[in-house]
Amino acid sequence: MDNTDNSLKQSLYAKRETIHPRHVTGIFATLRVTAVVVLMGIYYGLPWIPWDGRQAVLFDLPARKFYLFGITLWPQDFIYLAALLIVAALSLFFFTAIAGRLWCGFACPQTVWTEVFMWIERKVEGDRNQRIKLDKSLNKKHKVFLKTVKHGIWIILSLWTGYTFVGYFTPIIQLGYKIAALQTGPWETFWVLFYAFATYGNAGWMREQVCLYMCPYARFQSAMFDKNTLVISYDSARGEPRGHRKRSEDIKTAGLGSCINCKLCVQVCPTGIDIRDGLQYQCIGCAACIDACDDVMDKMSYPKGLIRYTTENAFVSGETKLLRPKVILYALVLVAICAALIYGLVTRDAVGLDVIRHRNVLYRVTNEGLAENIYTLKVLNKDNLDHTFRVAVTGLPGISLREEKEVFVTSGHVEEAIIAVLVDPVDMKSPSADIDIQIISKNNPDLNATAKARYLKPR
Amino acid sequence: MTMPLKRRLIAMLWPSFVCAGIFSAFLFAFIDPLLLSDSLGVEVSPRLAGYSITFLVLWALGALSTLFGIAILKTPKNDGERKP
Fold first, then answer.
1. Are A417 and A391 in contact (CB under 8 A)?
2. A254 and A359: one domain?
3. Which residue from A122, A409, B15, B30 has the least number of CB within 10 angstroms?
4. Which of residues 46-75 of A touch B (CB under 8 A)?
5. pLDDT tens for residues B4-22?
6. Residue A87, pLDDT above cutoff 50
7. Are residue A285 and residue A363 in the same domain, yes or no?
8. Is residue A279 part of a domain?
9. Do A133 and A16 belong to one domain?
10. Is B56 on the interface with A (CB under 8 A)?
Protein backbone atom coordinates (compact mmCIF):
# COMPACT_ATOMS: atom_id res chain seq x y z
CA MET A 1 0.00 0.00 0.00
CA ASP A 2 2.71 2.41 1.02
CA ASN A 3 4.66 1.64 -2.09
CA THR A 4 1.82 2.38 -4.50
CA ASP A 5 1.11 5.53 -2.55
CA ASN A 6 4.66 6.66 -2.91
CA SER A 7 4.87 5.89 -6.59
CA LEU A 8 1.64 7.81 -7.16
CA LYS A 9 3.10 10.84 -5.41
CA GLN A 10 6.27 10.43 -7.36
CA SER A 11 4.41 10.48 -10.64
CA LEU A 12 2.34 13.50 -9.63
CA TYR A 13 5.48 15.50 -9.14
CA ALA A 14 7.61 13.69 -11.67
CA LYS A 15 11.11 14.97 -11.98
CA ARG A 16 11.14 17.30 -14.92
CA GLU A 17 12.69 15.98 -18.07
CA THR A 18 14.33 18.62 -20.19
CA ILE A 19 12.14 19.42 -23.17
CA HIS A 20 13.98 19.94 -26.43
CA PRO A 21 11.41 21.51 -28.74
CA ARG A 22 12.10 20.93 -32.42
CA HIS A 23 12.37 24.00 -34.66
CA VAL A 24 9.20 24.59 -36.64
CA THR A 25 8.32 26.76 -39.62
CA GLY A 26 4.92 27.74 -40.93
CA ILE A 27 2.32 30.45 -40.74
CA PHE A 28 1.96 30.43 -36.93
CA ALA A 29 5.73 30.26 -36.42
CA THR A 30 6.05 33.31 -38.67
CA LEU A 31 3.34 35.10 -36.71
CA ARG A 32 5.10 34.32 -33.44
CA VAL A 33 8.49 35.47 -34.71
CA THR A 34 6.86 38.69 -35.90
CA ALA A 35 5.29 39.19 -32.48
CA VAL A 36 8.63 38.48 -30.80
CA VAL A 37 10.52 40.97 -33.00
CA VAL A 38 7.90 43.71 -32.51
CA LEU A 39 7.57 43.24 -28.73
CA MET A 40 11.31 42.94 -28.17
CA GLY A 41 11.85 45.99 -30.37
CA ILE A 42 9.42 47.95 -28.20
CA TYR A 43 10.92 46.74 -24.92
CA TYR A 44 14.57 47.36 -25.81
CA GLY A 45 13.96 50.45 -27.96
CA LEU A 46 11.38 52.51 -26.07
CA PRO A 47 13.69 53.94 -23.36
CA TRP A 48 16.01 55.32 -26.03
CA ILE A 49 13.41 57.54 -27.71
CA PRO A 50 13.90 61.22 -26.81
CA TRP A 51 11.05 63.69 -26.31
CA ASP A 52 11.41 67.42 -25.56
CA GLY A 53 14.94 66.95 -24.27
CA ARG A 54 14.03 64.06 -21.98
CA GLN A 55 13.28 60.36 -22.25
CA ALA A 56 9.88 59.81 -23.95
CA VAL A 57 8.84 57.01 -21.60
CA LEU A 58 10.29 57.34 -18.13
CA PHE A 59 8.71 56.20 -14.89
CA ASP A 60 10.82 58.55 -12.86
CA LEU A 61 10.38 56.98 -9.45
CA PRO A 62 13.17 59.00 -7.81
CA ALA A 63 11.37 62.23 -8.80
CA ARG A 64 7.89 60.70 -8.38
CA LYS A 65 6.53 61.51 -11.84
CA PHE A 66 5.80 59.44 -14.93
CA TYR A 67 6.53 60.72 -18.43
CA LEU A 68 4.56 59.18 -21.29
CA PHE A 69 5.52 61.08 -24.41
CA GLY A 70 3.69 64.42 -24.07
CA ILE A 71 1.98 63.56 -20.80
CA THR A 72 3.36 63.93 -17.30
CA LEU A 73 1.61 61.99 -14.57
CA TRP A 74 1.96 62.73 -10.86
CA PRO A 75 1.19 60.44 -7.94
CA GLN A 76 -2.21 62.20 -7.75
CA ASP A 77 -3.00 60.68 -11.16
CA PHE A 78 -2.86 57.14 -9.79
CA ILE A 79 -6.43 56.65 -11.04
CA TYR A 80 -5.16 56.61 -14.64
CA LEU A 81 -2.69 53.86 -13.86
CA ALA A 82 -5.45 51.87 -12.17
CA ALA A 83 -7.71 52.38 -15.21
CA LEU A 84 -4.90 51.24 -17.48
CA LEU A 85 -4.52 48.04 -15.47
CA ILE A 86 -8.27 47.40 -15.69
CA VAL A 87 -8.11 47.93 -19.47
CA ALA A 88 -5.24 45.44 -19.69
CA ALA A 89 -7.13 42.82 -17.66
CA LEU A 90 -10.36 43.28 -19.66
CA SER A 91 -8.49 43.01 -22.96
CA LEU A 92 -7.05 39.74 -21.73
CA PHE A 93 -10.56 38.46 -20.90
CA PHE A 94 -11.91 39.67 -24.24
CA PHE A 95 -9.24 38.03 -26.36
CA THR A 96 -9.32 34.85 -24.29
CA ALA A 97 -13.07 34.49 -24.79
CA ILE A 98 -12.67 34.80 -28.57
CA ALA A 99 -9.36 33.18 -29.36
CA GLY A 100 -8.27 31.23 -26.29
CA ARG A 101 -4.73 31.49 -25.07
CA LEU A 102 -3.58 33.97 -27.69
CA TRP A 103 -1.70 35.86 -25.01
CA CYS A 104 0.22 32.78 -23.86
CA GLY A 105 1.26 31.65 -27.31
CA PHE A 106 2.25 34.95 -28.85
CA ALA A 107 2.56 37.89 -26.45
CA CYS A 108 3.45 36.75 -22.92
CA PRO A 109 6.95 37.91 -21.92
CA GLN A 110 7.65 34.37 -20.77
CA THR A 111 6.93 33.05 -24.28
CA VAL A 112 8.72 35.91 -26.02
CA TRP A 113 11.95 35.67 -24.02
CA THR A 114 11.91 31.88 -24.09
CA GLU A 115 11.60 32.07 -27.86
CA VAL A 116 14.68 34.32 -28.06
CA PHE A 117 16.64 32.11 -25.65
CA MET A 118 15.70 28.99 -27.63
CA TRP A 119 16.78 30.71 -30.83
CA ILE A 120 20.22 31.33 -29.29
CA GLU A 121 20.29 27.74 -28.06
CA ARG A 122 19.51 26.45 -31.56
CA LYS A 123 22.19 28.65 -33.15
CA VAL A 124 24.81 27.39 -30.70
CA GLU A 125 23.86 23.77 -30.08
CA GLY A 126 21.80 22.91 -33.15
CA ASP A 127 18.22 21.61 -33.45
CA ARG A 128 16.45 19.05 -31.26
CA ASN A 129 18.32 15.90 -32.29
CA GLN A 130 21.73 17.54 -32.02
CA ARG A 131 20.84 18.92 -28.59
CA ILE A 132 19.65 15.55 -27.31
CA LYS A 133 22.84 13.99 -28.66
CA LEU A 134 24.95 16.73 -27.06
CA ASP A 135 23.32 16.18 -23.67
CA LYS A 136 24.20 12.48 -23.85
CA SER A 137 27.60 13.12 -25.41
CA LEU A 138 30.69 11.83 -23.66
CA ASN A 139 32.93 14.33 -25.43
CA LYS A 140 33.29 16.57 -22.37
CA LYS A 141 35.39 19.29 -23.97
CA HIS A 142 33.01 19.92 -26.86
CA LYS A 143 29.99 19.83 -24.56
CA VAL A 144 31.46 22.25 -22.00
CA PHE A 145 32.54 24.61 -24.77
CA LEU A 146 29.11 24.79 -26.42
CA LYS A 147 27.27 25.10 -23.10
CA THR A 148 29.63 27.86 -21.96
CA VAL A 149 29.05 29.80 -25.17
CA LYS A 150 25.27 29.40 -24.84
CA HIS A 151 25.13 30.47 -21.21
CA GLY A 152 27.56 33.29 -21.91
CA ILE A 153 25.29 34.76 -24.60
CA TRP A 154 22.24 34.19 -22.38
CA ILE A 155 23.87 36.03 -19.48
CA ILE A 156 24.96 38.99 -21.64
CA LEU A 157 21.42 39.30 -23.05
CA SER A 158 19.97 39.01 -19.52
CA LEU A 159 22.23 41.75 -18.20
CA TRP A 160 21.21 44.01 -21.10
CA THR A 161 17.58 43.19 -20.29
CA GLY A 162 18.16 44.18 -16.65
CA TYR A 163 19.86 47.40 -17.70
CA THR A 164 16.93 48.23 -20.02
CA PHE A 165 14.44 47.49 -17.23
CA VAL A 166 16.10 49.91 -14.80
CA GLY A 167 16.35 52.33 -17.74
CA TYR A 168 12.57 52.69 -17.59
CA PHE A 169 12.84 54.08 -14.06
CA THR A 170 15.97 56.16 -14.18
CA PRO A 171 17.31 57.93 -17.32
CA ILE A 172 18.86 55.16 -19.39
CA ILE A 173 21.72 57.14 -20.94
CA GLN A 174 23.03 58.44 -17.59
CA LEU A 175 22.59 54.92 -16.21
CA GLY A 176 24.74 53.63 -19.07
CA TYR A 177 27.51 56.10 -18.23
CA LYS A 178 27.27 55.18 -14.55
CA ILE A 179 27.55 51.46 -15.35
CA ALA A 180 30.51 52.10 -17.67
CA ALA A 181 32.25 53.99 -14.84
CA LEU A 182 31.13 51.38 -12.25
CA GLN A 183 29.41 54.15 -10.29
CA THR A 184 25.85 52.88 -10.04
CA GLY A 185 24.10 53.21 -6.72
CA PRO A 186 23.60 50.03 -4.67
CA TRP A 187 19.90 49.76 -5.52
CA GLU A 188 20.36 50.38 -9.23
CA THR A 189 22.97 47.62 -9.25
CA PHE A 190 20.65 45.35 -7.28
CA TRP A 191 17.71 45.80 -9.66
CA VAL A 192 19.80 45.38 -12.82
CA LEU A 193 21.20 42.12 -11.47
CA PHE A 194 17.85 40.99 -10.06
CA TYR A 195 16.02 41.47 -13.35
CA ALA A 196 18.90 39.88 -15.27
CA PHE A 197 18.79 36.87 -12.96
CA ALA A 198 15.01 36.57 -13.36
CA THR A 199 15.30 36.72 -17.17
CA TYR A 200 18.10 34.15 -17.25
CA GLY A 201 16.31 31.83 -14.84
CA ASN A 202 12.85 32.09 -16.41
CA ALA A 203 13.76 31.99 -20.10
CA GLY A 204 16.85 29.80 -19.83
CA TRP A 205 15.98 27.30 -17.12
CA MET A 206 12.35 27.43 -16.02
CA ARG A 207 10.62 27.84 -19.39
CA GLU A 208 7.35 25.87 -19.55
CA GLN A 209 7.48 25.26 -15.79
CA VAL A 210 6.60 28.94 -15.31
CA CYS A 211 3.37 28.32 -17.25
CA LEU A 212 2.66 25.03 -15.49
CA TYR A 213 3.47 25.88 -11.88
CA MET A 214 3.66 29.65 -11.53
CA CYS A 215 1.23 31.34 -13.87
CA PRO A 216 -2.08 32.39 -12.26
CA TYR A 217 -3.63 33.16 -15.66
CA ALA A 218 -3.09 29.56 -16.78
CA ARG A 219 -5.23 28.44 -13.85
CA PHE A 220 -8.24 30.70 -14.36
CA GLN A 221 -8.22 31.23 -18.14
CA SER A 222 -10.55 28.26 -18.64
CA ALA A 223 -13.27 30.28 -16.87
CA MET A 224 -13.37 32.59 -19.91
CA PHE A 225 -13.68 29.66 -22.32
CA ASP A 226 -16.92 28.44 -23.86
CA LYS A 227 -17.86 26.25 -26.80
CA ASN A 228 -17.21 29.11 -29.24
CA THR A 229 -13.68 29.82 -28.09
CA LEU A 230 -10.85 29.06 -30.49
CA VAL A 231 -8.69 26.22 -29.26
CA ILE A 232 -6.09 24.00 -30.85
CA SER A 233 -7.70 20.64 -31.57
CA TYR A 234 -6.75 17.37 -33.09
CA ASP A 235 -9.47 16.04 -35.38
CA SER A 236 -9.55 12.51 -34.01
CA ALA A 237 -12.48 11.48 -36.21
CA ARG A 238 -10.29 12.10 -39.22
CA GLY A 239 -6.95 11.11 -37.72
CA GLU A 240 -7.73 7.78 -36.06
CA PRO A 241 -6.77 5.02 -36.27
CA ARG A 242 -3.28 6.44 -36.49
CA GLY A 243 -0.34 4.50 -37.84
CA HIS A 244 2.60 4.31 -40.20
CA ARG A 245 1.96 3.78 -43.85
CA LYS A 246 3.63 4.26 -47.21
CA ARG A 247 2.86 7.42 -49.15
CA SER A 248 1.41 5.37 -51.97
CA GLU A 249 -0.85 3.33 -49.72
CA ASP A 250 -4.59 3.99 -49.91
CA ILE A 251 -5.73 4.80 -46.36
CA LYS A 252 -9.28 3.56 -46.95
CA THR A 253 -8.22 0.04 -47.88
CA ALA A 254 -5.57 0.06 -45.14
CA GLY A 255 -8.25 1.10 -42.65
CA LEU A 256 -6.19 4.02 -41.36
CA GLY A 257 -6.95 7.63 -40.45
CA SER A 258 -4.91 10.64 -41.56
CA CYS A 259 -2.50 10.63 -38.60
CA ILE A 260 0.74 8.92 -39.62
CA ASN A 261 1.93 8.92 -36.01
CA CYS A 262 5.18 10.72 -36.84
CA LYS A 263 5.06 12.40 -33.40
CA LEU A 264 6.32 15.70 -34.84
CA CYS A 265 3.46 17.49 -33.06
CA VAL A 266 4.86 16.20 -29.77
CA GLN A 267 8.45 17.07 -30.65
CA VAL A 268 7.72 20.72 -31.48
CA CYS A 269 5.59 21.31 -28.37
CA PRO A 270 7.32 23.70 -25.94
CA THR A 271 5.42 22.17 -23.00
CA GLY A 272 6.00 18.62 -24.18
CA ILE A 273 2.37 17.45 -24.46
CA ASP A 274 0.62 15.31 -27.04
CA ILE A 275 -2.24 17.39 -28.46
CA ARG A 276 -3.85 14.16 -29.77
CA ASP A 277 -4.80 13.36 -26.17
CA GLY A 278 -7.23 16.29 -26.28
CA LEU A 279 -7.13 19.81 -24.87
CA GLN A 280 -4.90 20.05 -21.82
CA TYR A 281 -4.22 22.87 -19.40
CA GLN A 282 -0.52 22.68 -20.31
CA CYS A 283 -1.32 23.79 -23.87
CA ILE A 284 -0.31 27.43 -24.22
CA GLY A 285 -1.90 27.73 -27.67
CA CYS A 286 1.33 28.45 -29.54
CA ALA A 287 0.12 26.44 -32.59
CA ALA A 288 3.57 24.94 -33.23
CA CYS A 289 1.88 21.54 -33.64
CA ILE A 290 -0.44 22.95 -36.32
CA ASP A 291 2.54 24.13 -38.37
CA ALA A 292 4.31 20.81 -37.94
CA CYS A 293 1.25 18.71 -38.83
CA ASP A 294 0.25 20.84 -41.85
CA ASP A 295 3.75 20.30 -43.20
CA VAL A 296 3.39 16.53 -42.86
CA MET A 297 -0.09 16.54 -44.41
CA ASP A 298 1.36 18.43 -47.38
CA LYS A 299 4.10 15.86 -47.79
CA MET A 300 1.55 13.05 -47.66
CA SER A 301 -0.74 14.93 -50.07
CA TYR A 302 -3.51 14.88 -47.46
CA PRO A 303 -5.60 17.99 -46.82
CA LYS A 304 -4.22 20.31 -44.12
CA GLY A 305 -5.91 20.91 -40.79
CA LEU A 306 -5.73 17.56 -39.01
CA ILE A 307 -4.64 19.71 -36.07
CA ARG A 308 -6.21 23.15 -36.35
CA TYR A 309 -7.48 26.25 -34.61
CA THR A 310 -11.16 25.63 -34.18
CA THR A 311 -13.99 25.72 -31.67
CA GLU A 312 -15.94 22.99 -29.98
CA ASN A 313 -19.10 24.14 -31.78
CA ALA A 314 -17.37 24.08 -35.15
CA PHE A 315 -16.44 20.48 -34.51
CA VAL A 316 -19.99 19.49 -33.64
CA SER A 317 -22.17 21.63 -35.91
CA GLY A 318 -19.64 23.35 -38.15
CA GLU A 319 -20.66 26.75 -36.87
CA THR A 320 -19.00 29.20 -34.49
CA LYS A 321 -20.86 32.08 -32.95
CA LEU A 322 -18.53 35.02 -32.56
CA LEU A 323 -20.86 37.56 -30.94
CA ARG A 324 -21.94 36.00 -27.67
CA PRO A 325 -23.33 37.98 -24.71
CA LYS A 326 -20.01 37.49 -22.88
CA VAL A 327 -17.94 38.85 -25.75
CA ILE A 328 -20.29 41.81 -26.28
CA LEU A 329 -20.22 42.62 -22.57
CA TYR A 330 -16.42 42.53 -22.39
CA ALA A 331 -16.21 44.71 -25.51
CA LEU A 332 -18.71 47.29 -24.20
CA VAL A 333 -17.03 47.64 -20.80
CA LEU A 334 -13.64 47.81 -22.50
CA VAL A 335 -14.71 50.57 -24.88
CA ALA A 336 -16.39 52.51 -22.03
CA ILE A 337 -13.30 52.43 -19.80
CA CYS A 338 -10.97 53.29 -22.69
CA ALA A 339 -13.17 56.24 -23.62
CA ALA A 340 -13.27 57.44 -20.01
CA LEU A 341 -9.50 57.07 -19.72
CA ILE A 342 -8.81 59.04 -22.90
CA TYR A 343 -11.40 61.70 -21.99
CA GLY A 344 -9.86 61.99 -18.53
CA LEU A 345 -6.33 62.33 -19.88
CA VAL A 346 -7.29 64.89 -22.51
CA THR A 347 -9.32 67.07 -20.16
CA ARG A 348 -7.01 66.54 -17.21
CA ASP A 349 -6.62 69.69 -15.09
CA ALA A 350 -3.08 70.89 -14.77
CA VAL A 351 -3.99 72.55 -11.46
CA GLY A 352 -5.88 71.23 -8.50
CA LEU A 353 -7.51 73.16 -5.67
CA ASP A 354 -8.85 71.88 -2.35
CA VAL A 355 -10.50 74.19 0.15
CA ILE A 356 -10.83 73.36 3.83
CA ARG A 357 -12.71 75.57 6.28
CA HIS A 358 -10.92 76.65 9.44
CA ARG A 359 -12.08 74.10 12.00
CA ASN A 360 -12.11 76.08 15.24
CA VAL A 361 -13.28 79.54 14.24
CA LEU A 362 -16.55 79.37 12.31
CA TYR A 363 -16.65 83.11 11.69
CA ARG A 364 -15.46 86.42 13.16
CA VAL A 365 -16.73 89.95 13.07
CA THR A 366 -14.15 92.60 12.26
CA ASN A 367 -13.93 96.07 13.81
CA GLU A 368 -15.64 97.44 10.69
CA GLY A 369 -18.60 95.11 11.28
CA LEU A 370 -17.77 92.77 8.41
CA ALA A 371 -18.04 88.98 8.63
CA GLU A 372 -14.83 87.06 8.22
CA ASN A 373 -14.39 83.33 7.33
CA ILE A 374 -11.01 81.62 7.19
CA TYR A 375 -10.07 78.90 4.68
CA THR A 376 -7.00 76.81 4.00
CA LEU A 377 -6.25 76.31 0.31
CA LYS A 378 -4.26 73.40 -1.03
CA VAL A 379 -2.92 74.31 -4.45
CA LEU A 380 -1.55 71.50 -6.61
CA ASN A 381 0.56 72.32 -9.67
CA LYS A 382 0.67 69.39 -12.13
CA ASP A 383 2.13 71.52 -14.92
CA ASN A 384 5.73 71.11 -16.04
CA LEU A 385 6.48 74.76 -15.11
CA ASP A 386 6.45 76.64 -11.79
CA HIS A 387 3.55 79.02 -11.37
CA THR A 388 2.42 81.86 -9.15
CA PHE A 389 -1.33 81.72 -8.59
CA ARG A 390 -3.55 84.67 -7.70
CA VAL A 391 -6.54 83.92 -5.44
CA ALA A 392 -9.98 85.39 -6.23
CA VAL A 393 -13.35 84.99 -4.48
CA THR A 394 -16.86 85.44 -5.94
CA GLY A 395 -20.43 84.42 -5.15
CA LEU A 396 -21.73 87.06 -2.71
CA PRO A 397 -22.29 90.82 -3.12
CA GLY A 398 -19.27 92.84 -1.99
CA ILE A 399 -17.19 89.74 -1.21
CA SER A 400 -13.47 90.40 -0.89
CA LEU A 401 -10.21 89.08 0.51
CA ARG A 402 -8.81 90.76 3.62
CA GLU A 403 -5.51 90.95 1.78
CA GLU A 404 -4.46 90.01 -1.77
CA LYS A 405 -3.04 86.53 -1.85
CA GLU A 406 -0.51 84.93 -4.20
CA VAL A 407 0.72 81.35 -3.95
CA PHE A 408 3.94 80.20 -5.58
CA VAL A 409 3.92 76.45 -6.38
CA THR A 410 6.81 74.67 -8.05
CA SER A 411 6.10 72.09 -10.73
CA GLY A 412 4.58 68.93 -9.31
CA HIS A 413 4.11 70.21 -5.76
CA VAL A 414 1.37 71.19 -3.36
CA GLU A 415 1.40 74.41 -1.36
CA GLU A 416 -0.94 75.57 1.35
CA ALA A 417 -2.26 79.10 1.78
CA ILE A 418 -4.62 80.61 4.34
CA ILE A 419 -7.09 83.25 3.21
CA ALA A 420 -9.57 85.45 5.07
CA VAL A 421 -12.77 86.27 3.18
CA LEU A 422 -14.82 89.36 4.10
CA VAL A 423 -18.54 89.91 3.48
CA ASP A 424 -20.92 92.55 4.82
CA PRO A 425 -23.50 90.49 6.82
CA VAL A 426 -26.24 92.87 5.70
CA ASP A 427 -25.83 91.52 2.18
CA MET A 428 -26.40 87.92 3.27
CA LYS A 429 -30.00 86.77 3.24
CA SER A 430 -29.49 83.25 4.54
CA PRO A 431 -27.36 82.04 7.46
CA SER A 432 -24.92 80.43 5.05
CA ALA A 433 -24.11 80.53 1.36
CA ASP A 434 -21.85 78.92 -1.21
CA ILE A 435 -18.95 80.94 -2.53
CA ASP A 436 -16.44 80.24 -5.30
CA ILE A 437 -12.72 80.38 -4.63
CA GLN A 438 -10.57 80.53 -7.73
CA ILE A 439 -6.85 80.35 -8.37
CA ILE A 440 -5.41 81.73 -11.62
CA SER A 441 -1.85 81.45 -12.84
CA LYS A 442 -0.36 84.93 -13.32
CA ASN A 443 1.56 84.07 -16.49
CA ASN A 444 -1.06 81.75 -18.02
CA PRO A 445 -4.68 82.64 -17.14
CA ASP A 446 -5.87 79.44 -18.86
CA LEU A 447 -4.35 77.58 -15.97
CA ASN A 448 -6.98 77.94 -13.27
CA ALA A 449 -9.16 76.00 -10.89
CA THR A 450 -12.28 76.79 -8.93
CA ALA A 451 -13.61 75.18 -5.77
CA LYS A 452 -16.85 75.74 -3.86
CA ALA A 453 -16.79 76.61 -0.15
CA ARG A 454 -19.41 77.27 2.54
CA TYR A 455 -19.59 80.81 3.94
CA LEU A 456 -21.19 81.27 7.39
CA LYS A 457 -22.98 84.44 8.50
CA PRO A 458 -22.41 85.58 12.13
CA ARG A 459 -25.38 84.83 14.41
CA MET B 1 1.29 17.01 1.99
CA THR B 2 4.58 16.02 0.56
CA MET B 3 5.70 18.57 -1.92
CA PRO B 4 9.10 18.87 -3.45
CA LEU B 5 11.30 21.68 -2.20
CA LYS B 6 11.27 23.44 -5.55
CA ARG B 7 7.48 23.74 -5.61
CA ARG B 8 7.42 24.85 -1.97
CA LEU B 9 9.96 27.52 -2.78
CA ILE B 10 7.93 28.68 -5.78
CA ALA B 11 4.76 28.81 -3.67
CA MET B 12 6.60 30.81 -1.03
CA LEU B 13 8.51 33.26 -3.18
CA TRP B 14 6.40 33.83 -6.27
CA PRO B 15 2.89 34.91 -5.14
CA SER B 16 4.43 37.02 -2.37
CA PHE B 17 6.64 38.70 -4.99
CA VAL B 18 3.66 39.65 -7.15
CA CYS B 19 1.66 40.91 -4.17
CA ALA B 20 4.60 42.89 -2.79
CA GLY B 21 4.87 44.60 -6.18
CA ILE B 22 1.18 45.52 -6.23
CA PHE B 23 1.16 46.69 -2.60
CA SER B 24 4.29 48.80 -3.11
CA ALA B 25 2.86 50.48 -6.19
CA PHE B 26 -0.38 51.22 -4.34
CA LEU B 27 1.36 52.42 -1.17
CA PHE B 28 3.79 54.74 -2.91
CA ALA B 29 1.12 56.23 -5.14
CA PHE B 30 -0.12 57.87 -1.95
CA ILE B 31 2.95 58.20 0.24
CA ASP B 32 6.35 59.62 -0.58
CA PRO B 33 8.96 57.14 0.70
CA LEU B 34 10.95 60.05 2.15
CA LEU B 35 7.95 61.10 4.29
CA LEU B 36 7.39 57.49 5.30
CA SER B 37 10.97 57.05 6.48
CA ASP B 38 10.79 60.43 8.26
CA SER B 39 7.69 59.46 10.19
CA LEU B 40 9.30 56.14 11.15
CA GLY B 41 12.32 58.05 12.42
CA VAL B 42 14.79 56.24 10.19
CA GLU B 43 17.01 57.76 7.58
CA VAL B 44 16.45 56.14 4.19
CA SER B 45 17.52 58.02 1.10
CA PRO B 46 17.44 58.35 -1.83
CA ARG B 47 13.86 57.45 -2.69
CA LEU B 48 14.98 54.43 -4.70
CA ALA B 49 16.28 52.90 -1.45
CA GLY B 50 12.93 53.58 0.22
CA TYR B 51 10.99 51.88 -2.57
CA SER B 52 13.38 48.95 -2.69
CA ILE B 53 13.58 48.27 1.04
CA THR B 54 9.80 48.52 1.45
CA PHE B 55 9.30 46.14 -1.46
CA LEU B 56 11.76 43.63 -0.04
CA VAL B 57 10.21 43.84 3.44
CA LEU B 58 6.70 43.29 2.01
CA TRP B 59 8.03 40.38 -0.05
CA ALA B 60 9.65 38.80 3.00
CA LEU B 61 6.43 39.20 5.04
CA GLY B 62 4.40 37.59 2.26
CA ALA B 63 6.84 34.70 1.96
CA LEU B 64 6.73 34.23 5.72
CA SER B 65 2.94 34.11 5.59
CA THR B 66 3.03 31.40 2.91
CA LEU B 67 5.61 29.46 4.90
CA PHE B 68 3.15 29.54 7.81
CA GLY B 69 0.42 28.38 5.44
CA ILE B 70 2.47 25.48 4.13
CA ALA B 71 3.39 24.48 7.66
CA ILE B 72 -0.22 24.25 8.90
CA LEU B 73 -1.30 22.37 5.76
CA LYS B 74 0.86 19.55 7.06
CA THR B 75 -1.76 18.11 9.36
CA PRO B 76 -0.87 15.56 12.05
CA LYS B 77 -3.23 13.08 10.30
CA ASN B 78 -1.13 13.15 7.16
CA ASP B 79 2.01 12.75 9.21
CA GLY B 80 0.55 9.67 10.85
CA GLU B 81 -0.02 8.07 7.47
CA ARG B 82 3.64 8.04 6.75
CA LYS B 83 4.96 4.94 8.42
CA PRO B 84 8.69 4.49 8.87
1. yes
2. no
3. B30
4. 61-62, 64, 75
5. 788 888 889 999 999 999 9
6. yes
7. no
8. yes
9. yes
10. no
